[in-house]
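Lecture notes, part 5. Sequence design as translation. It can be helpful to think of inverse folding as translation between two languages: the language of shapes and the language of residues. The source text, in structure tokens, appears below.
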């Protein structure tokens, strides 16, 4: 049976974070609040848990799972290299609503789906998410909804869709912005915005100092 922890209450928050960390280490799924939408997450290095996440969403491997990190420095161990443009965007928008796609480190023993050698990374601006990430390390996290259904902006909406497939729900209140992250692909010769969301194209252009294209 799943349990919902009210992270607005100090004692419940402590208990919930401990329960979530234990569940993740046991290969289970957790629903957590972020600054954009609620996410369903697992240990990024547990291939069985990642497959369980995809199954819970009703989603195929052709839509690989993004990874959330709890600090700027974590990214260095996850990718082949961090180019100057990535550093500039991280400094400007992390923690926050910007996801960055980079080639992942070939030495990593993970399976996030059919990633074609890349990983999408983000550091969320939410205290509950950050605290959990700093406790357990990088998490594979996707929006907390069944594929084809509206993304959850509250823990209750996530539970309505995912139910007992997730044992731990961390309720951090309604998402203030409820806008998906902006995705910037840095795997090519020029940055490409795959999705414009919480961070606007004009803001990215200002930071990088040149016009950035939006994928058609």
């Amino acid at each position: 049976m799943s349990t919902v922890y009210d992270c607005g209450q100090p004692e419940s928050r402590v208990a919930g974070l401990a329960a979530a960390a234990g569940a993740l280490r046991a290969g289970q799924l957790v629903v957590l609040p972020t600054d954009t939408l609620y996410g369903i997450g697992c240990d990024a290095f547990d291939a069985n848990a990642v497959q369980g996440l995809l199954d819970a969403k009703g989603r195929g491997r052709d839509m690989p799972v993004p990874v959330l990190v709890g600090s700027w420095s974590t990214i260095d161990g996850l990718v082949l290299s961090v180019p100057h443009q990535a550093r500039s965007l991280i400094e400007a928008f992390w923690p926050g609503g910007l996801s960055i796609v980079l080639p992942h480190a070939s030495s990593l023993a993970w399976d996030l789906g059919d990633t074609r050698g890349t990983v999408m990374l983000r550091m969320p601006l939410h205290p509950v998410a950050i605290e959990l990430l700093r406790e357990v390390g990088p998490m594979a996290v996707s929006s907390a909804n069944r594929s084809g259904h509206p993304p959850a902006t509250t823990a209750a909406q996530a539970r309505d869709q995912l139910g007992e497939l997730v044992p731990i729900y961390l309720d951090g209140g309604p998402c203030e912005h409820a806008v998906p992250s902006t995705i910037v692909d840095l795997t090519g010769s020029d940055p490409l915005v795959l999705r414009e969301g919480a961070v606007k194209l004009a803001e990215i252009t200002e930071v990088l100092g040149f016009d950035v294209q939006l994928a058609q």
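The translated text above is only one of many valid answers, since several sequences can fold into similar shapes. The mean pLDDT is 96.
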